[in-house]
Amino acid sequence: MILYLDNTEYILFRSQTALKGYASQNFLQMSQNKRVNPKVHLSASTLLSRLWISAALVAAASAGSALAQDSTSEETPRRWAKPTPDPDRIMLTWSGDPATSQSVTWRTDTSIANGFAEIALAAAAPGFSKTAESVQAKTQSLCLDQAYSNPDWTVHFHTATFENLSPDTLYAYRVGDGKERWSEWFQFRTAKNGPAPFSFIYVGDAQNGIHSHWSRLIRSAYTKQPDASFIIHAGDLVNNAHTDLEWGEWFEALGWIHGMIPAIAVPGNHEYRAYTQERKGQPSHLSIQWRPQFEYEVEESTPADLEETCYVIDYQGTRIIALNTLDGVQEQKAWLESKLTGHDAQWVILTFHFPIFNSANNRDNTPRREAWKPLLDKYDVDLVLQGHDHTYARGHTSALTGRETDNPNQVGSVYVNSVSGAKMYQVKTDRWNAYAEAGAKVVRMAENTQLFQTIKVSQRTIEYSAYLPSGELYDAFVLEKDADGVKTLSDDPITATPERSFENTLPY
Ligand SMILES: [Fe+2]
Ligand SMILES: [Fe+2]
């Protein structure tokens, strides 16, 4: 639910805990803004009435009000909520080598018992479609109302994997019922064989205000980097793991983008929820939509609980390792170490949800830091892309012991926490000071700011840029690696844009 008050937007989060924290935090910020920002003038009575409304919002959430569900009534479902015989939620992912394979997943209603995908070389002449080859999809039924927040619909998810493709080749594909109900023809390009430059997009938590606020962000990201090879979503894609309306908003927000650009997604804590509204004492389950929607490689040794939530993708000389910070943290250590060795990638990029170095106030992640950071240090991981803290922080660790040089710009691993959706937290008051002993130093932070990142990878450099939804640059660095593996960081301060905080931005 979004409540409009004096042109200020307040978002009622469905998580009771978050709401309780935020209602008070938001109003604290408002009162601070009153002091520092002459444009925001709140009379005592207005502030009191807002506080009263805040209390009412908390009460509403405490009562378990599922306000976002108002729009899922059977009578008037949102346009994107209900499946039809026509394919929607079309999603590219990789379950094999990106140079020779491509997986695609889509949704229909249950009238489509068998799904098919067609693929052809994307020639300029429209007759390319006559050369298409057909692949039958795996089709699975999903009963939405196994989780409390959903209508009693059953939907079909279909997954097809194109194999034996040629590297660096533009293909056209479509998905449908094999007869009349087809999607439009989409295009994708397979990866080159071996190392070659490429770019990608990375975003933190979409999670809240997905349709209303995240749409502009993800579309701006696509506009900035339309040739991105993939998009990393670092967890908390939605707020309530199983709520199908939220997944509908997510797909509506990004439209056809993931029909052309594959997703590398990891689950966050908001992708794990009980099936019942009352969560206390109930087991958490991975979003019922996750595995039907995202097709990733499952190794024989992957524990069933972790399937399609931790995996590796090698893309043009860069190894991307996706990890699950919610489940099997200790179990993944040996697996992670096996993936950090025995490869010839020039760069290793990790993505997961809970950050190693927290940037939101009153948060710390000691167990995961203790479990994984020694490995990240030992193998000198290049870049770690994370979410969860609803703030922005970019920093790095110092150079690996035994590899130090005289270069003052030498670094170990670069760490980023970012947020793309509408929920905003305060940054840690002591920034990353608590992590100084762990060798961490933060360079640029932000609060109350939606951000997306573009990352350009080449043989010797990673060029990183973080942008505001307007497309304005907020943070940037170049990480350079020499032939000996020594890494240096250049990052000219962006003086035109001071660090963003609740103090110098619009009231939240
Ligand atoms: Fe989270
Ligand atoms: Fe989150």
Could you characterize what this model shows?
There is one protein chain. By secondary structure, the protein is of the alpha+beta class. The protein folds into 3 domains: 2-65, no CATH class; 107-189, no CATH class; 198-490, Metallo-dependent phosphatases (Purple Acid Phosphatase, chain A, domain 2), CATH 3.60.21.10. The chain has helices spanning 16-36, 44-62, 210-224, 244-254, 257-260, 290-293, 331-340, 366-378, and strands at 2-5, 8-11, 88-93, 102-108, 116-121, 133-136, 138-143, 154-162, 170-176, 186-189, 198-203, 231-233, 263-265, 272-273, 285-286, 311-315, 318-322, 347-351, 383-386, 392-397, 414-417, 440-446, 452-457, 461-467, 473-481, 487-490. A hairpin with an 8-residue loop joins strand 3 and strand 4 (102-108). Helix 1 (16-36) runs antiparallel to helix 2 and helix 3 (210-224) runs parallel beside helix 4 (244-254). The longest helix has 21 residues, at 16-36. The two termini are 15 Å apart. One fe (ii) ion (FE2) binds next to loops.
Total of helices: 8
- Structure classification: alpha+beta
Bound molecules: fe (ii) ion
| Quaternary structure type | single chain
CATH topology of the largest domain: Purple Acid Phosphatase, chain A, domain 2
Radius of gyration from the alpha-carbon trace, in angstroms = 23 Å
Overall geometry comes to globular
Helix proportion range: 10-25%
Percentage beta strand:
25-35%
Summarize this, please?
With 508 residues, this protein is an alpha+beta fold. The chain contains eight helices and 26 strands.
